[in-house]
Design brief:
The chain is an alpha+beta fold and 162 residues long. The chain contains six helices and four strands. A hairpin with a 5-residue loop joins strand 2 and strand 3. Helix 1 packs across helix 2. About 6% of the residues have low confidence.
C-alpha cells in the first residue's frame, strides 16, 4: 500500500470531515464536545468549520494537506499546518474584521468546548511566533488501514511542502 501527500482542495472538505469525525470519535475530550448533537447537524457544522478554514487561510498562515491511497485515491488522513507568515497592514485590518468566534449546534458542551479550545488558543498566542514558528493541528488519520510507517515520516514531509 502506498500513499501520496497532496495539497487539500475545497472539494476535499466532505472527505476531510469524514476522516475528522472517525479519527476523533474515541478521543476522551473531543468525543465529549458534542455528545448530544444530531449527526447531521454535526456534519454540517464540521463542513462549515473547514470551509471557513479554507476561506481564511491567507490571513491565518494555514495550509491543509491530505494523504490519499495511491491505488484508490481515497483520502485517509489530513493535517492543517500553520506556516510562518507576515500580514500586510491591509491584511491585518481584514483579519481583525473576521468573525473568528464559534457558534455551536444544539447539544454541544459549550463550556468544555470554550475551555479546551480557549486554552489551546492561549497557548498558541503565548508560545508561537506567527512570523517564525510552524504548528500542526490537527493530524487526523483514519484508524484503518494502520499507517505507522507513514505517520513516522509525516511531519518532515508536511514541512517540506512549504
Amino acid at each position: 500500500m502506498s500513499f501520496q501527500l497532496l495539497p487539500a482542495e475545497v472539494s476535499d472538505i466532505p472527505d476531510v470531515v469524514a476522516v475528522h469525525q472517525v479519527s476523533w470519535v474515541d478521543d476522551p475530550i473531543i468525543g465529549r464536545l458534542m455528545p448530544d448533537v444530531d449527526p447531521k447537524a454535526k456534519y454540517e457544522y464540521d463542513i462549515s468549520f473547514y470551509q471557513k478554514k479554507f476561506e481564511t487561510k491567507a490571513l491565518t498562515g494555514s495550509v491543509m494537506h491530505k494523504v490519499v491511497e495511491t491505488e484508490t485515491g481515497k483520502l485517509v488522513a489530513f493535517a492543517k499546518w500553520k506556516y510562518p507568515y507576515r500580514l500586510t497592514a491591509e491584511q491585518q485590518a481584514e483579519k481583525a474584521k473576521l468573525d473568528l468566534g464559534r457558534s455551536y449546534p444544539p447539544g454541544t458542551n459549550e463550556e468544555l468546548y470554550e475551555q479546551f479550545f480557549g486554552r489551546l488558543d492561549n497557548l498558541r498566542k503565548k508560545y508561537l511566533d506567527e512570523e517564525k514558528d510552524y504548528c500542526e493541528s490537527p493530524l487526523a488519520p483514519l484508524p484503518h488501514p494502520p499507517m505507522p510507517s507513514f505517520l513516522s515520516s509525516t511531519h518532515t514531509a508536511f514541512l517540506s511542502l512549504n
